[in-house]
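MODEL INPUT / OUTPUT PAIR
PAIR INDEX: 1
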Amino acid sequence: MTRRNAYITQSQLVNFAGSEISTVEIANELKAMGYEVYVVTTISSKTFRVMLAKKGIKVLHVLEKNIIQQAVEDAPPDLVWVQHNIFPIELSIEAVKNKAKIFFYHMSGSTPQELPFFRHIEEKIASLIVVNSAKGIDIFYERRWFNKSTKNLFNLKNSAPDIFFDEKKNLKSRPKKLLVVSNHIPDELREAGLLLLKNNDIEVFDHIGDGGNVKANNPVTPGILKKYDVVITIGKTVQYCMAMGIPVYCYDHYGGPGYLVEGNLESSAQRNFSGRGAHKSDAAGIARELLRGYSATRLFTQSTFRKVFAEEHRLSKKIRTIIESEDQTKTSARDVVDDLVLMDGYTELVSRRYANNHYLRQKNHTVEQELDALQQTNNRLSLKLNEITSSRAYKTVINIQKMKKKLGL
């Protein structure tokens, strides 16, 4: 069987956030399809490198140019998946020369690093330009990043891996265990959980994300989600829950439509389940909705929600459709070399920025740890000093010294 090589580019692999998780999932899908997979990024954590290595996926770093050059010579690219406009010249030139299929993926129409700054290059060399929601396509049209004559736009729908479809949650008649998955949980949502717990309406209100009480060092898994009756979240976790048949209350810092049901499902999907364009509620209103809306949502979730709608968000099918699409790229390397050099300049600039910021964060963390250690030492010494000065022996010595002074001794 002929070896096929795939390269995915990504701004950084340090924290478990949306684009990082998507990178891992897409890499796993390509690996499952028989590709040798390389992830090219600016910086990475040991956690990501070890996790990907276990699947036989290699991590390369943009500023290690000799290593990338050697990799593309040993494993010429057949497929390149570009994210965050990261496209080093060592990879881009070989990809065009090798007539590889090249896909540009934009996960947002508003986040700066996701925007198609090099759309003129994309339109020349992309097999497909991929976005993760219908709203993303609309934004690109409205802001004239692309025009409607750009026919090679594809909606990935922020789809979920098969492992979530392989699990099914058996739902209770009443919601007892609730989970929030968010890195920016709004105050009203946190207060709603406390209110439900105080009134004994629920047993558990857990939170995964920044400031959460449940620590998850890895992406959210089916095993984690299966423990809960309702998941309150936005974005990619919605698709995970859809695949498993778990009711979703779509709400976060932008607000949200609440429980996902037939009346709001399509409009929410258009916005990638971001919560945008919906309403903000107060704590009492959210608590009330979580209890009262559960029964109807439970029935809908295990029927249309899981069996029909969720199937449209199966990642393996979407990736296969993208890869099997007709290659529309007819450009030679000679025609686009200046464009690729321009993109490489941006890639190196961004890479150095990420590397410097990462170094400063690590340095700051080290200094904070040293200061904390000094403070703990100071606290221990202060306690010891206080213990000594409060002791009977110390007071006796002081009294003896006073008496000697009085006696002139």
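PAIR INDEX: 2
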Amino acid sequence: MSSGDTLDFGEVSLGQTLERLVTIQNKSTTSASNGSAYELCPDFGANFATNLLAGTSALRPITFTPTREGIQYCAVPFVCNLPSPRVQYYLICRGVGVGGTPVCQVSTSTIDFLQVRVGQTKDLTFQITNTGTGTLAGTAGPSPCSEFSFVGPVAYSLHASETATITVRYTPTSVGHTTSCPLVPTGDGCSSLTLIGEAIAP
């Protein structure tokens, strides 16, 4: 392995793991060498050490497990401690995440604002998480009931394990009225919400 070499994993389905082997070679004819590699990128795996006699080599694994679609790169550092002086090389890893199936998980099915005075508002939040392996894209809302509204960003595009926080506002208008608003949309493939609030006197 030389600094700047490229290791191409090609296309890998989201959530799948592909392993490739790299050759670590001690080119010295007289001295032993030792070194280690580690990765700082979330979808690539490289964590190994080598201790090589003069003129020998070893195979070590690097893995790519994509959690999002598209091209990804990682510069994996390999530190050679012996023979002196200490030298650091970089192996450029490239992989493409393809396919995958997003899964929507909504943090709650009901949001209860309890009692809110007419003339005031109350904001509560819920979370949408992609527990699958593709990209989950959607838009929360709108509310079919006038007392409830979505505020702030409502569109989301989530890679695997990412979460979006959505804010809903309750604005009561009629004292003594309790509103139950079912089937509030949170996005395609996501479960709907029921919003509840009770209006009390100012």
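PAIR 2 NOTE: The chain has two domains: 6-98, 104-200.
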